[in-house]
Amino acid sequence: MNTQPAQMKKGMQVPRAKMPERDPQERGNDFNEVPLGFTPLQAMLEASRCLVCQKEICRTGCPVNVPIKDFMILIANGDFPGALRKIREANSLPAICGRVCPQEDQCEKLCSLAKKYESVSIGYLERFVADMEMESGNIELPDRASATGLKVAIVGSGPSGLTCAGDLARLGHTVTIFEAFHVAGGVLMYGIPEFRLPKKTVQREIDYLKKLGVKFEFDTLVGRTVTIPELFQEGYQAVFIGTGAGLPVFMNIPGENLNGVYSANEFLTRVNLMKAYDFPHYDTPVMRGKKVAVIGGGNTAMDAVRCALRLGAEKAMIVYRRSAQEMPARKDEIHHAQAEGIIFHFLTAPVKITGNGDGWVTGMECLKMQLGEPDASGRRRPVPIPESDFALEVDTVVVAVGTSANPIVPGTTPGLATNKWGYILADPETGATNLPGVYAGGDIVTGAATVISAAGAGKRSAEAIHKYLMGTKENNFESNGSKD
Q: Least buried of 166, 239, 423, 462, by fewest C-beta within 10 Å?
């Protein structure tokens, strides 16, 4: 029986549910989460908009291949535990991905309703069922395979490492994650602010992995405390490298060495992981500037500028060299920033940071830009407008123009192939590197990307590692890369 015409009618008639969120004036003064989440009735009504398409096109946009149609049907029928069970067949981090993944550019972009109407709120619904379970305290664990007796080391506890670990644990392997910091989560903990991704939510997902049997070794910097060759000597049969791309990138303009200039990584790590926002309960120092400029247009820039506002900035500004249409940040994050009063300086490029005699930031010299022909990213290239220079009065500058590969693990793993930028060369389908038993995925392979793309890499590597360990397939990547 084909129910799609009836579903199509419902999908057209019922408007997309709007996520309730806290008042901008109120939330700009604290670090509590901004979106409030759906009620059960809102969730069921929103899920009922799904057209239940025979060709599940939306699923092809999901890097971890979540069975979207199936969990939509379960939510619409009020079976929230069943919906979460279905999601977890593919995704170990639903409460996280439901909050920070760019669904508008992935699954929701391909939703059939999006051709003429608004897509189903797939991300919000994923968050809803994950939160329902967490709030109930009734954590349901999946079936796990019998223990294989085989050991896998995971380097880094960001989204790729956590996903890889969870999948391998379900397959019966003994999994240990080695994390350089004192807590697990990687960028989920140190990079994404509390108001966008509460740390208790990340910790609950980590606790779920612990219940699956995943072990954690903290304060362990692989490449210094222990090397990958030494992990094999200790009895691990395979290693997955998911260290991310956390090395800051600067613009190489005059004045970047002045006091009051931060990389986004340092600024966000101080504020989030080290809880500088809760000073003096936590004694981490951070600049609480009154006139803060954040340079960049991605999610990291949005996170940093919204943190600056909450730390007391009277003017919290985004300085971005392209126009609003080219900004890579999520639409939700731009919307939230605008509602909170963030000032946007579009088509503006900093050329110099100025300071006083004591070495502290006092301003920033900028040029106005215009858009030329598209560059390699597909976005129109910003071109300086002659004699358009002007000055911005600022006391704090946060540089959020990207990151690069951390060289510690590649530099201490003899023979591991990297490209000229220092990223590890790995098979995109399996994560296999050129070294037997060594796999890699996430930002350390691709460069800075999204949480869900890193999770997808971890998932594919887990499958490949399992096959490698069980002797069903050799997964060595023959690369033509160089060890730079």
A: 423
